Structure prediction request, 304 residues.
Amino acid sequence: MMVDSFLPAMREAVARRLSEEGLSQGKIAGLLGVTQASVSLYLKSGGRSAQLLRGLEIPEEDGRLYASLLAEDLKKDPVYAESTLYSLWSDLLGRGSLCAPHRSLYPRLAQCDVCIKAFGGRESRSGDAIEHVAEAVRMIEGSSEFVDIMPEVSVNIAYAPEGASSVQGIVAIPGRIVKVRGRARSFMRPEFGASTHVANVLLTAMSHDDSVRASMNLRFDRRMSRVLRRMKLHPLLLEEAGVKSDSEMIGSLRAALGRATGPVDAVVDPGASGLEPGLYLFGHDALEVVRQGLKVARSYAAER
Prediction:
């Protein structure tokens, strides 16, 4: 089902998304690891991806959001996209979303629950940490104002339970928190190792202040700058650069933290060519970061 339906559906949907963003067929082919002729066929297919997803009982709107997440990650690093694709598929298996279409192909599997046990039981590694982040996500999803401070690259929350010292030890949201019908929504449960960028930002902040255990990324613009001043928040400003990779951004953050003389509760990345600016909030845990984020959202809504 992955190879025959989900993967080709996502390839076509991502190709269409990247084409809408203005990328050439040659560039899209390079990112997807297929031929230019294949990309041409994807763009002329007339929506075969939607048909394949319907066969898997995946709503078309979910498919579009999956494609958006994969396209964004693919432009950054194919490894990001690979990880997101795996997380999306694993989550579908773990929630039992694919059981009905699978059983229609193999009726003898009527009593099978192998995928739910194998992929739905990943919380055993540290259920408390995962539930902690899940509670923070529910707070965001319940806010009507939070969506206004979400950046185009979407939002992630990273939380470091006791002893975390690498990306694999950080709990975050696979595929990030995205905008759906004017609300923030997470498609998947938190996992260990689900974020690279925000997790690395958190690990770098932890090296400066070991009381910091959580981080969340938000949008940054002039309106947000006014909000932060009004809230008496003074974020650390990173140096501007030309075209910044993730590693360059982390290097800039490390240098800025090295010059800081006290605790840092927020950082502003001014962005670069083709990269939007961003605000990172820090806190002692995920709930504290989200509560601060919701205060920022309410203040942002009131700022005109």
Summary: The chain has a mean pLDDT of 88.
